[in-house]
Amino acid sequence: MVKITGYETHDVRFPTSLTGDGTDAMNTDCDYSSAYVALLTDSDLVGYGMTFTIGRGNEIVCAAIKEVAKRLVGKDTESLFADMGKAWDYMMADPQLRWIGPEKGVIHIASGAVNNALWDMYARSRKKPLWKLIVDFTPEELVRSATFRYITDAITREEALAMLKEKEAGKKEREEEVKRVGYPAYVTSAGWLGYSDEKVARLTKEAVAQGFNHFKMKVGASLSDDLRRGNLIRSIIDDPQFLPPNTTPRDPKSPALQGKNAGPTGAVLMIDANQVWDVPEAIEYVSALQEIRPWFIEEPTAPDDVLGHAAVRKGLKGVGIGVATGEHAHNRMVFKQLLQAEAVDVAQIDSCRLAGVSEVLAVLLMAAKFGVPVCPHAGGVGLCEYVIHLSLIDYIAISGTMERNVLEFVDHLHEHFVTPCSINAQGRYNVPMNPGEGYSIEMHKSSIAEFEYPNGTYWKGRGEEGKAAEA
Ligand SMILES: [Mg+2]
């Protein structure tokens, strides 16, 4: 019998604000950070998890992680693994911690870190990467692993089971297919708001040469800047001369590209406002960006405003631009309402704003039922490592569709992970295959020693003020 005996947390911060990486209309000064946890046992088995923040406040999340992780100390791992849905309910049900949520804010993202660590431990104990652990589940086991509380008006366990059984027959074939071709990705690293036009042009050309065909640009600070940058990006991605050698342009009319406003080479542009507008302003501003032909506007307004998103979506129908959101949707109930209100064309789950894999599975099941594609949020630090697992689960076991979906990829900070994600020559995520990598989120001990805040070797003696002076 293996028991959970304790936990460690680390407040790890990377000084990304010095380079303008990660800048958008709302978040102008980000130090990508990880509130990291290791769940320890009385054996060699360890479970790693984290949630993402952008700097200040990361220590508050670490304090909350300790409170949530305490509930698991002393528990037998096999009895937790036997019913992960029940384990999730238990983890979330602290009668006092619940008051500082419920199921939102710091306590919820801390719960995400802990639940992900438990899933990582489960996958490691079975010597499988997380996605493989879950796609090998029977439909009954997968349904049991998700949380259904408060969503049965949108999907029942019985409906979920029937959907999964229908997908059973093709699982093996889809697994082989995605291992061979990789999972479609899109690139955000070229379009940060803090970058100069020269840097945007260079990075966009590089991304096209790497095989990417979906690109995302940050908008919302200045309409004239957005139009200029959007036209600059379109002039590169729509020009066949920049495609990798011997590449045939994709057919913009192919089923995978329908409705995405793809250009002549099959390239797709998306835009992201990171919540800066009120509803009428969002409709007016995005309508004025029609000439750069985006597929969707991401986070046009406040992330909790379900009916506001529905209004924006309705308001943009005439110009053929869709709506995406979800990276700040704090729980499955927000996704339920977004789907019920027909407020989104694309659902963008976040691997650690939702409270871990068990809650993510609930959202994947709902999205599949409503026929809305899931394009997870990534970037930051560690998010790309996490989300490839979730998209593989979605494709192989749940929705069965891949080519219309795209998974965000941002090429920052992967070197800090023991089993970093990777992209193939066609601009698609490789499938994680290491049997010991669990949920792929274990960080190098040397990275923690360097970037732990405020006493790691990078931060010691610098502090926030020292960093500002240096910059
Ligand atoms: Mg975003």
Approximate strand percentage? 5-15%
Rg measurement, Å: 21 Å
Count of separate DSSP helical elements: 17
Hetero ligands: magnesium ion
**What string, H for helix and E for strand, traces the elements in order?**
EEEHHHHHHHHEHEHEHEHEHEHHEEHH
Largest sheet: 8 strands, mixed
Helix and strand content put the structural class at alpha/beta
Global morphology: globular
**Number of beta-strand segments:** 11
Q: Mean of the pLDDT scores?
A: 95
Helix content: 25-40%
Cα(first) to Cα(last) distance is 52 Å
Residue windows where pLDDT falls under 50 for at least 5 positions: none
Concise account of the structure shown:
The protein is of the alpha/beta class.
List the helices and strands and how they pair.
Layout: E1 4-13, E2 33-41, E3 46-53, H1 58-70, H2 77-81, H3 84-92, H4 105-125, H5 130-135, H6 139-145, H7 157-168, H8 171-181, E4 183-191, H9 197-209, E5 214-218, H10 223-237, E6 268-272, H11 279-287, E7 294-298, H12 306-316, E8 322-325, H13 332-340, E9 346-347, H14 357-370, H15 383-398, E10 407-409, E11 428-429, H16 445-451, H17 463-470
Parallel strand pairs: 4-5, 4-10, 5-6, 6-7, 7-8, 8-9
Antiparallel strand pairs: 1-2, 2-3, 4-11
